[in-house]
């Protein structure tokens, strides 16, 4: 018998009623007596399931409805219509009990107490969530090993760098070992090393505890590093829900070949490879990049043509960045070739 999904969202919508202000002095006077209201549909009849142990990227442009969805999933907002079931709970109805089964990390906000040492915040959370001393010690050891937080456990939160605070926030969110973790921009503003530490930690927790992760971010490197499945939302509507690999396979149009020549004089011979659909860029005297439409030009044929024309010291084939695909989707390009 198939296991029930951890998150089941059905026909979910959220409307906001906003007051439209008129301009100028006369408009201000009119606003006192006659008000015009507009209804904004932040989330518009979306449906999806998330199974236990999945790591899912939930992405979209600013104003797409991502944060509104997360707020409904965490019980902060009540939907205008539709239903949500998370682990048997209705988030906004069972919020007191439900919040003990989830972890939440918002990139620009902290759940730690600002003026006390990190360890004291963890001790308070231990009491709030009823974590046994044995479990607390085991999890703190894990966080120390993977996140490397031991060296600033006795430092006030206000003195931590952004990267240090994000590591501590992740540890705090997972201290009670929740089956579900919501992440909103967890690596925003972090350097490459800090991002890598956080990604390694999330992969480890997912594999070890089967923690389900719903990740919203504008950093698509996070999505590619962590998620096999993505859900794309725009203007409140669901645009795509499926494997990241399928999206890339169907919509990645451009590939590029970057190679280093053995002889600078051979660069002139590259111009002879200028068949249709090729764009040749000279990076430096020895390094060149050829961009091509993978639906029109065979990668293997192009490789043979390059290697037959010039002597190459190094060669790398790269796909178009996933950012370019997502930009085209946001711009309204139809997903005709992708099964929704």
Record field, number of beta strands: 13
Instruction: Indicate the CATH architecture of the largest domain.
Output: 3-Layer(aba) Sandwich
In the CATH scheme, the class of the largest domain would be Alpha Beta
**Widest β-sheet, arrangement of strands:** 5-6-7-3-8-9
Which structural category do the helix and sheet elements fall into? Answer: alpha/beta
The tally of structural domains comes to 2
Indicate the proportion of strand residues: 25-35%
The main β sheet shows up as: 6 strands, mixed
Element order: H for helix, E for strand: EHEEHEHEHHHEHEHEEHEHEEHEH
CATH homology superfamily name of the largest domain = P-loop containing nucleotide triphosphate hydrolases
* General shape: globular
Bin the helical content: 25-40%
Q: Report the uncertain regions.
A: none
Rounded mean pLDDT is 84
DSSP helical segment count: 12
CATH topology of the largest domain: Rossmann fold
- Evaluate the radius of gyration: 25 Å
N→C terminal distance: 25 Å
Describe the structure in your own words:
- The protein is of the alpha/beta class and about 350 residues long.
- It folds into two domains: about 5-250, Rossmann fold, CATH 3.40.50.300; about 255-320, Alpha-Beta Plaits.
- It has twelve helices and 13 strands.
- A six-stranded mixed beta sheet has the order 5-6-7-3-8-9, with helices on both faces. Strands 11-12-10-13 form a four-stranded antiparallel beta sheet, covered by helices on one side. A three-stranded antiparallel beta sheet has the order 2-1-4.
- The longest helix is centred in the middle third of the chain and has 18 residues, at about 190-210.
- It starts with 6 loop residues before the first strand and ends in a 10-residue tail after the last helix.
